[in-house]
């Protein structure tokens, strides 16, 4: 059985940083901090200015572990308790959901809900219900 580690301090700090980044991006650029939308726009930018801010955010996401290394002296410990095939299948399923849901958990759950978007409330409830069901099925029915 997979054991989930939860540390309230790390979760609170991470949530605060995500919230701060979301507010700053909306304030400075008027854009929603939706990770998949940022990546999609990076791949097909509408202008060089549009590409630049997306590249900066993606660079920040990629350099995060190195900042952690600099501060703590070691990389964050990441345990992936599933096979590579499971991750690929999960990634494809998430990609399909993001496409049909017109956004991801960061876009709908963090930014959309804070703007009181009814569509984002429905999307986030759907994400959470799907996640709950999938965790229950994989852990308690399939025993993975």
UniProtKB/TrEMBL annotation:
It holds the Pfam family Sulf_transp. The keyword S-adenosyl-L-methionine does not apply. Keywords: Cell inner membrane, Cell membrane, Membrane, Transmembrane, Transmembrane helix, Transport. InterPro entries: Sulf_transp_TsuA/YedE. GO terms for cellular component: plasma membrane. It is found in: Cell inner membrane. It is a multi-pass membrane protein. The keyword Flavoprotein does not apply. The chain crosses the membrane at residues 6-30, 51-72, 78-100, 121-142. Belongs to the TsuA/YedE (TC 9.B.102) family. This is Uncharacterized protein. It comes from Aliiroseovarius pelagivivens.
